Amino acid sequence: MRPQTALFTSIFAAAAMLVNPVAWSAEPDFSDIQAQIARQHDEGVKRLQDWIRLPSIAAQDLGYPEGADYMVRLLQEAGFQEAVKIETDGKPGVFATLDAGAPRTVGVYFMYDVKHFDPQEWSSPPLEAAIVDKPGLGKVIMGRGAVNQKGPEAAFLAALHAIRGAGRNMPVNVVLVAEGEEEIGSPNIAQIVDRPEVRSALAGTVGVFIPSASQDRDGLVTVNLGAKGVIEVQLVSSGETWGRGPGKDVHSSLKAMIDSPSWRLVHALNTLVSADGNTITIENYPQPLPLSAEHKAMIAVGASRRNEAKLKEQLSTQHWIDDLPFVEALERLVSQPTVNIEGLVGGYTGPGGKTVLPHRAEAKLDLRLVPDMTAEGALAALQAHLAKQGFGDIEVTMSGGYDPTSTPASAPLIQAQIAVLKQAGIDPMLWPRSAGSYPGYIFTGEPLNLPSAHYGLGHGSGAHAPDEYFVIESTNPEVRGWDGAVLAYVQYLYELAK
After folding, report:
1. Checking CA distances to 86, which of 102, 237, 258, 293 falls within 20 to 30 Å?
2. In a domain, 305, yes or no
3. Are residue 446 and residue 359 in the same domain, yes or no?
């Protein structure tokens, strides 16, 4: 998942009350399922560990089609009567249905792919899925995909195992769609969802949710009503395409008489934003909608309940953009599109020097989008702008992307979340949209027009970063460990059935 998730959810979550640790056991209707969750604890944790040890990394073409095959197996074991692999122009997807004969049906979105990693940056091997002690949190699983998204997804599957293990029928039917390319911008998810049988099944749901670990380190929870969209693009400047500069790397002394593709790329990038990098200057770029009064009020409440100094410490920063007051910085986070340089490279970057004039330079960018922007519109504007500025030779390749999402607070999918959280003693805070991204547009947009949201308790962090983790045994009574996260999905499914 685009780093929505754990980081932004944990940072900007707010709650009026701490969790009542006894609230879970206060519901007698779930005592049999709770007993099953406890009984199946080791089994569920091992299932997650095994899943982490089998990575699927789309950017490196690693773990395919094994990742999709394993996804099918996990769903079959969890009780889905139908679980089939769907081929696409890229990595395969998975479509599954669980028919419980229930009046209501809920949609679930999974991603089975994870981000790539550098093992040398980790304190525990990223594919070992070791359970380690983490001060202030308890025992956690550390590994790539632990929180993004295999941990929450495995907890959801454990909830299905526990319901069946307790001898109960599922309270709702489930339609599940999984993809293996979310971490490269979901370029082929439409080929999965647009299949007639998939679209028809989803159309009958109350909405689609993605499992998540929504608690921050203090147990606070937010309910996001949407997410930014994103496009990921690669910009390449080369002597071959430009027709100037070298066609291969040459000695740097020749810069006196040969043009540099690297400098050309830098100058092209400079035209995209203001000098401080904070204002988009792409001509005819799609404009975002202003914040509504309702959303401004949500942000104001969130700002009042967060410790700004603590947040800056967590983010290792001393200033917000333009030294804005906290509430205005949060308003920008929610409402403004961005142009970010993920990586910039050309020529030699190893130890020491290497006097070379590179023939090629590239930049990886992500452009975050807000309503009413579209991925298609943002890409077209970027390409047209570069051409008009005289950089038409710069190669622009979009690896993936999707539109922003919005879901009303009144949607049953959201109201059920609020009800379950309040039953647990949590007064959740509504938030206009996550600053991260996921391909919810495929559900919220035409033709489905379904609500879509994240849901789940538990805590984890480190998505896309070293030492990614998901809490298994929490030492903080306000933060759910594995069993509490599993039970939260049980309660959600039963609430959705009402």
Report:
1. 102
2. no
3. no
- The residue segments making up the domain with residue 388 are 229-288+336-401
Asked whether residue 307 is domain-assigned, the answer is no
Q: Taking the model in full, what pTM does it have?
A: 0.89
Q: What are 421's two structure tokens?
A: 């959280």
Nearest to 357 by CA among 217, 245, 470: 245
Same domain as 490, residue 354: no
Edge-to-edge order in the sheet of strand 82-86: 82-86, 93-98, 173-179, 105-111, 208-211, 452-455
CA–CA dist 123, 463 (Å, integer): 15
The answer on 163 and 32 residing in a single domain is yes
Q: What is the pLDDT of residue 1?
A: 52
CATH code at 390?
Answer: 3.30.70.360
Last residue of a domain, one of 349, 373, 401: 401
The closest alpha carbon to 372, from 398, 337, 399, 338, belongs to 337
Question: Would the pLDDT of 224 be above 70?
Answer: yes
d(CA 348, CA 244): 20
What is the C-alpha to C-alpha distance for residues 202 and 169, in angstroms, rounded to an integer? 21
HSE of 409, CA atoms in CB hemisphere, 13 A: 14
Residues 159 and 106 in one domain: yes
Q: Which residue(s) pair with 215 in the sheet?
A: 221
Contacts for 35-40 with beta carbons within 8 Å, 24 or more apart? 35/166, 36/161, 36/162, 36/163, 36/165, 36/166, 37/158, 37/159, 37/162, 37/483, 37/486, 37/487, 37/490, 38/483, 39/165, 40/158, 40/161, 40/162, 40/165
Torsion of CA 286, 287, 292, 298, to 10 degrees: 80
Q: Flag whether pLDDT at 451 surpasses 90.
A: yes
Are residue 382 and residue 253 in the same domain, yes or no? yes
Give the type of residue at 43: E
